[in-house]
Write a structure and sequence with these properties.
By secondary structure, the chain is of the alpha+beta class. It is about 45% helix and about 20% strand. Among the domains are: about 110 residues, Tetrahydropterin Synthase, Chain A (2-Layer Sandwich), CATH 3.30.479.20; about 40 residues, Orthogonal Bundle (GTP Cyclohydrolase I, Chain A, domain 1). The model has no long low-confidence stretch (mean pLDDT about 90).
Length: about 240
């Protein structure tokens, strides 16, 4: 058995080296929420083809990695790779699976979070979302969390609100707005106002709480959450997607 494992590992290393530049755009997302809904973990396990993604061995590997993550709560993907399952590191198990299946396999995204209530939303196995809700007042807000997970899966926001957008991104968007206004021949004295409006639209389109709530429309995500429970908000979220 040990010799067989060594053979698979060596074969996997060779396959990994040969396929390092391949696009691993298929796979599955694995998520778990604790029974008390205060802890969540998830990751995307990528491969090259949909056929392999549905393979029983591939799915078993993903579920075993998920169990190890739940039990040990690693903070980073590097720590996840270093965990052991039956005496073997997860990184080695991935290499062995690569040798067995013959495709590039990798953990492309990993997230862990703890809070008042953490909710998971899974869309067809290819997109998974973890949502950390705050100001729940002890109420069960799982349905709202799943609705927000659906929002994140479909609209792909880049931050919770304006505070999550770095200054360089804001400045870049402002300059794009200025350049567009100049191209349209707008007078100089209103350029700054136009640029500010461009940035506000960027926030509306790309920050979760400012986005239009897709299930209702004409209301923002922030307003929807407030209607569920006064002050309810999203502390953080993670969108785990195959092929991003």
């Amino acid at each position: 058995m040990e010799e067989a494992i060594d053979i698979l590992r060596k074969k996997g290393q060779k396959v990994s080296a040969k396929r390092a530049d391949r696009d691993a755009a298929e796979g599955s997302v694995f998520v778990h929420i604790s029974d008390d809904n205060k802890f969540g973990v998830g990751f995307a396990l990528n491969c090259e083809t949909d056929f392999v993604a549905k393979n029983d061995d591939f799915q078993a590997l993903g579920n075993n990695i998920l169990s190890a993550a739940v039990a040990n709560k690693p903070a980073t993907v590097e720590e996840l790779h270093a965990l052991e399952i039956d005496g073997r590191k997860i990184s080695d198990l991935i290499i062995e699976m690569t040798g067995k299946i013959g495709e590039k396999i990798e953990i492309s995204q990993y997230s862990i979070m703890e809070g008042e209530q953490v909710v998971a939303y899974l869309h067809g196995g290819s997109i998974g979302v973890l949502v950390n809700l705050a100001n729940t007042d002890g109420n069960d807000v799982e349905e709202a969390g799943k609705n927000i997970g659906m929002q994140i899966a479909s609209m792909n926001p880049i931050a919770v609100d304006e505070s999550g957008i770095d200054a360089d991104t804001v400045e870049r968007e402002k300059q794009v707005g200025l350049e567009k206004a100049r191209e349209e021949g707008k007078p100089d004295h209103i350029l700054d106002k136009i640029a500010e409006g461009f940035v506000k639209k960027f926030y509306k389109d790309n920050t979760l709480l400012n986005q239009e709530y897709v299930k209702e429309g004409k209301t923002t995500v922030k307003q929807y959450l407030d209607s569920v429970n006064k002050g309810l908000t999203v502390k953080e979220f993670a969108r785990l997607a195959i092929g991003r």
